[in-house]
Specification:
alpha/beta, 125 residues, single chain, globular, 4 helices, four-stranded mixed sheet, Transcription Regulator spoIIAA
């Protein structure tokens, strides 16, 4: 699976919009992390991850996003996610419900679960 990102900067509103297209998984997360880091280094007041075209997210992708959110917060900025598809939103709902609970034996088990949940929501649409 492939991931493409585009970045649009709105200097007037001190906003960076990062469009994420494709799959954010173990294979694509490292490069995405570098790209997102470059955006965060510019210290925009708000960085928006536009997930309208994000088809899949794994635990590796989530780690990158949560790390970036923490970094933005520590710098006095914000990171937001917008336009999440229902199956991507489901992943965020699951993790919000279990923020401090480790319920999976390893990343592979977590990724299998997240993939199954995303596929279930997709099939219900």
């Amino acid at each position: 699976m492939k991931l493409t990102t585009t970045v649009d900067i709105d200097d007037v509103h001190d906003l960076a919009r990062v469009c994420v297209i494709g799959a954010l998984n173990t294979d694509t997360a490292p490069e995405f992390e570098q790209q997102l880091q470059a955006v965060l280094d510019n210290s925009h007041e708000l960085t928006v991850l536009d997930m309208k075209e994000l088809d899949y997210i794994s635990s590796a992708g989530l780690r990158v996003i949560f790390k970036a959110a923490k970094q933005a917060k520590n710098a006095g900025n914000r990171l937001a996610a917008a336009n999440r598809k229902p199956h991507i939103d489901k992943v965020f709902e699951i993790l919000k419900a279990l923020p401090d609970m480790a319920v999976f034996a390893n990343d592979e088990e977590l990724d299998d679960y997240l993939e199954a949940m995303q596929n279930k929501v997709k099939s219900e649409q």
